[in-house]
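Entry for the shared binder. Reason: the reviewer on the internal report wants the predicted structure included alongside the sequence.
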Amino acid sequence: MNKVNVRREIDRWLAGVLTFLLAVPSVMWAQAPQAEVQPATVRSLKVVPLAGNGEMNDLEDKVMAPLVVQVLDQNDEPVEGADVTFRFPLAGPTATFADQKNAGTFRTNVDGQASAIGWTANTQLGTFKVQVTASRGNEQGSAVVSMTNVTRITEAAKKERKHWWSTKWGRIAIVAAAAGIVTGVVLATRGSSSGPKVITAAPGSPTLGAPQ
């Protein structure tokens, strides 16, 4: 075999080796098991509107309704330190924050409550929706609050707002007081052993008095 043929055989052998070496990594990569990417688990938060839902904004007197929500976890416990974003519509009846942005983010306190402050309704009349989202780590939740821009809140509506018994806590107090009166009457009647007594029912603790 002459030198030319030997050189050709060597070049052919080297080309085959090179082709093999280049093919091995791709084959190994194709056969290697791929690591599975597990999606992050997102836990849900409960966003409860406390004030503002169904309320009116008085454009004439520039009196805005309070806008407050409470964030609870899956056990209905208050979530402290959650970021709550209030987002107003971009057009139509709406409101904006002091920097003319349609969204603002606030942090919940120890009671899980966050209040949107520093916002003002625009001049357009009508009802609009406020999108409320809360997040803390991998926990998220949302709610929608409905508000209405009106020219002027009537005096009757203002007085109704001011009456303590028109609030949720006022109604609870009335029910509790009524329950206390009924319980007092029943206990006084059962405990009577020395003749009839006159029972006076009045708000607060019931009073007992001897017959006149």
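Summary line for the report: The first helix runs from residue 3 to 31.
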